Request: fold
Amino acid sequence: MAGERILMVEDERAVARGLEYGLTAEGFQVLWASSGQAALAMTRREAPHLLLLDIRLPDISGFDVCRQLRSEGFRQPILMITARDEEVDKVLGLELGADDYLVKPFSLRELISRVRALLRRAYGELAAPAPDQRLVFGPLTIDAGRLLALRDGQPVDLTPMEFRLLRFLATNPGRPYSRQQLIEAVWGYDSEVGSDRAVDVHVRHLRQKLEADPANPRWLVTVRGVGYKFEP
Ligand code: CA
Reply:
C-alpha cells in the first residue's frame, strides 16, 4: 500500500509544514486541518486512512474530535499528539478510541515509524483476518476470529489494543515479557521513547475488566523485574 492519505490536525503552521514535508517525502498524501471543526468536516469528506490529531486546537479539543469521529463510526487509526506528559494519562484513561499517542517534541523518524505500524496493523488485519482460533482458560475465552473476549460466556467490552495485548499474552501462556517486548509485539514498533506507561495502563484496564479480584490477578500477572505474563 502506498500513497495513503493522512489528515494532519495541527493549528501551528510551522509544525504542520514540517510534518507535511517529512510525511510527503515518505510517500504519503497529506491533508491539513487547522481546527477541530475543520478536522471533522475533512474526515467526513475525504475519508483519510489515518489521523494525526493534536490535542490542543483553537476550537474544540483533539479529545472531542476523536470521540465524535468514533461515535460516527470512523474506524481508521488515530494517533494523538500531546503537548505534555500529563495529557497522556487522559489519552489512555478516557478510552476515547485513540490507537496511539506521541508526546511533543518527537522526531520525524519516530512519527513515521508509528504511522507505518498503525497503517500496517489496521489495513493488514482487515486484509487478513486472524484465524478462527479460540483460547479457553476456565471461565475466560479469547476468540481471535471474532476479536472477542468472553467471561462466563458474556462478552467483555475491550478496546482493540486491550484485545491485542490479551491475545498476545494468552497465546504464549506462562512466558514473561518485558514492557518493551510487548510494545514491539503488540503495538508494532521499536520505540525511541518510553511507552512503558501505556503497557501498564492497558494491563490495569484488562485486570479491571477480566479479573474477579483485579488487585490479585489470576491471569494477568506481574513478573517482578521483568514485566507481565499470562498465567493459564
Ligand atoms: Ca496545537
